[in-house]
């Protein structure tokens, strides 16, 4: 999958997590480590503090991330021995705080945060959607518990929104629209959260941790095969992407989908996520197999 379409899996404007950590230093990405530092110090958590207070607060973030370093490393398929402990912790702080800053600035209901986007790279009209695309690439993830801990440490007292709500509202802005609230309370990462927002309303959902049965395998007929056997397929009115419905006898209604490079990239990463984790329902894999002619 990856060899044929590397562009779909590689971050284009910002690296998150260890897989492409070295790429940030080797290539001219739009969002550099220096930008991440600027976003951190522009955040409400840091903005009004003195230099000494900022150092103390930064040290606190690093200290808490250090406690999570081993657990975080275990979430990845590689050991990343070439990234020393200090650099790994620094990456956790900067990448996590960048994501939180982006979510806050996106939240239009809190004008307070809008002030902290002014004068920054986030004012560019194209940059936020571009970062959003990179945040749902499988190799560009931080564990959600890292984001949750940073959120607990940095959010103002008067902010009662959960991180799950902030993240979901942001993800609903992506070009492939998710039409429902997430079903996952403790997602692995942002891509897992995004995936859960597409779960079809019809059908049953296995409890967390149950594996797909290897004893039962179902052959998914492709759309062309159904048409060949007399099934009519037409555009449905349902907005939820995966809600393929039986209408009248011998009729399937499929929600419309316009595929461009961005949506193609999102679909590939959702499929890759399903293929990497046995306990994830393969909704998008089935969807692509069905559509493929």
TrEMBL record:
What is the protein named? Uncharacterized protein
Instruction: Extract the InterPro entries matched here.
Output: DUF247_pln
Pfam families noted in UniProt: DUF247
Would you say which domain of life the source belongs to? Answer: Eukaryota
């Amino acid at each position: 999958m990856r060899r044929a379409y590397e562009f779909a899996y590689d971050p284009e404007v910002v690296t998150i997590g260890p897989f492409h950590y070295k790429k940030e230093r080797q290539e001219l990405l739009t969002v550099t480590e220096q930008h991440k530092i600027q976003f951190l110090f522009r955040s409400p958590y840091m903005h009004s503090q003195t230099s000494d207070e900022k150092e103390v607060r930064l040290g606190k973030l690093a200290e808490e991330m250090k406690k999570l370093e081993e657990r975080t490393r275990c979430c990845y398929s590689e050991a990343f021995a070439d990234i020393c402990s200090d650099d790994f912790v620094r990456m956790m702080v900067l990448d996590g705080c960048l994501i939180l800053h982006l979510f806050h600035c996106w939240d239009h209901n809190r004008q307070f945060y809008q002030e902290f986007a002014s004068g920054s790279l986030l004012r560019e009209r194209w940059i936020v959607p571009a970062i959003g695309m990179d945040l749902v690439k499988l190799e560009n993830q931080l564990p959600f518990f890292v984001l949750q801990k940073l959120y607990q440490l940095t959010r103002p007292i008067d902010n009662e929104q959960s991180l799950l709500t902030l993240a979901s509202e942001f993800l609903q802005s992506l070009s492939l629209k998710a039409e429902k609230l997430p079903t996952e309370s403790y997602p692995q990462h942002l891509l897992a959260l995004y995936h859960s927002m597409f779960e079809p309303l019809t059908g049953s959902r296995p409890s967390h941790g149950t594996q797909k049965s290897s004893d039962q395998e179902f052959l998914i007929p492709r759309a062309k095969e159904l048409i060949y056997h007399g099934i009519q397929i037409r555009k449905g009115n349902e907005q939820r992407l995966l809600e393929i419905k039986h209408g009248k006898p011998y009729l399937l209604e499929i929600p419309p989908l316009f595929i461009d490079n961005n949506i193609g990239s999102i679909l590939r990463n959702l499929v890759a996520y399903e293929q990497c984790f046995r306990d994830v329902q393969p909704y998008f894999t089935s969807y692509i197999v069905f559509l493929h002619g």
